[in-house]
Amino acid sequence: MFEGPVQDLIDELGKLPGIGPKSAQRIAFHLLSVEPSDIDRLTAVLAKVRDGVRFCEVCGNVSDAERCRICADSRRDLAQICVVEEPKDVAAIERTREFRGRYHVLGGALDPLSGIGPEQLRVRELLNRVGERIDGVDVNEVIIATDPNTEGEATATYLVRMLRDIPGLSVTRLASGLPMGGDLEFADELTLGRAFTGRRAMA
Amino acid sequence: MFEGPVQDLIDELGKLPGIGPKSAQRIAFHLLSVEPSDIDRLTAVLAKVRDGVRFCEVCGNVSDAERCRICADSRRDLAQICVVEEPKDVAAIERTREFRGRYHVLGGALDPLSGIGPEQLRVRELLNRVGERIDGVDVNEVIIATDPNTEGEATATYLVRMLRDIPGLSVTRLASGLPMGGDLEFADELTLGRAFTGRRAMA
Prior knowledge:
The structure is a homodimer of 203-residue chains. The first copy, chain A, is α/β, with parallel strands linked by helices and 203 residues long. Helix content of chain A is 39%, strand content 12%. In chain A, a hairpin with a 6-residue loop joins strand 1 and strand 2 (62-63). The N and C termini of chain A lie far apart (66 Å).
C-alpha cells in the first residue's frame, strides 16, 4: 500500500506477535516522525539481543553475568526452588513478592507433538540442583509453577514422578482456582471444577 | 525486572505507540527466539527509515522516487484532487477503490495550540496545483478528506475559504454520518446530528 522502506518496515513490524497491520502502520509512521537517535537506540538494543543474551548458569534465567541477580543474592532461601517454563514467569512471580527462594527456568514445557521432550528442557540441571547440598543447605521444597494448561500440567506430572522419591523433599504445585477479582458466573468449567476439588477448610 | 539487553529492548519497545509493558515483553522474548537474520532485516529497514524516507514532489505522499506511483500513473484523473492529512489516509482511501483522481497530503491539520498553522502544512503547494493547468487538464474538483474532528474540520473550513473563489472549481467534503454496519442506538450525538443534517432524499 505504501512505497519503499515505509512498507518494508510495516511488513517487518507486522511479523511481531500481537502487532496487526493497523498497529504496524501506526508504529511505522510514528518512527518516521521521531528523532534519528531514538531509532538508533532501538536498533542498538536489537543488535545486542541478536548477538546473544546470556543465561544464568544456575537457574537459566536471562542474565547480565554468569549468575543472575536472584541466584547471586545471598538473602534468597537456598532450600526452595520454584520451577517455571520461561524467564517471563520469573518476572511475574517476583512481582507478587510472595517467594523468597530461587528459580529454575525449564525453557519451555513438554510438548511431544512439537518434539519437545525432557531432553529439550533443563530437567537434568534441575535434578542436579535438587541432589546437591548448596552451602550446607539441602533443597527441601520444589514448587512447580508451570502453566495451568495441557503442556504445563504434563510437565508438572512428569517432574513430580522424577522428584517424589527423593527423601526429605516436598514437591508442591501452585493452586488452581477462581482468579481473584473475577466473577464465578463467568469462570470456565475446568477452572470452576479445579476450584471445587481444591477447596480449603475455612472453619 | 529483567537484566541487560532484554530489559533495554522491552523499554525501547514500550515507547512505541500502542505497545504496553506486556506486549513489549512478549515481543522482546519473541525476538530472543527468532533467527538472527530476522532481526537483521528489522534493523536494516529501521536504518533506512532513519536515513530518510522520500516524499512525492507532487502530492507529498511517501514515495520511492521523485513522484509516487499514484502521481506517476497516467490513468489517474488529473481533474480531481483529494486532500488528506497524512499518507496513511491515502492508503485508507485507496483501499475503498472509490477514487480515481490524485491526492494531496497536507502533512497534518491546523492546530494553533500546537503551533501548526497553514505555513506548517502543504497548503501553498495545494493552491499551486489547483491554479496550474496540468497536461491540458484543469483541476475541477477538490475533495477535502481531512479527519472529522476539531482540527480536521477547522482545516476543511480554512481550505474552503482559500478555494471557493476559484472559477470552475467545486470544493466538496466527505460525508459525515452513521458508520455502516453500526447501530443507530449507539451513535454519539454529534455523529447522529450530522447524519440528520446530511440526510439524503431517497424518493
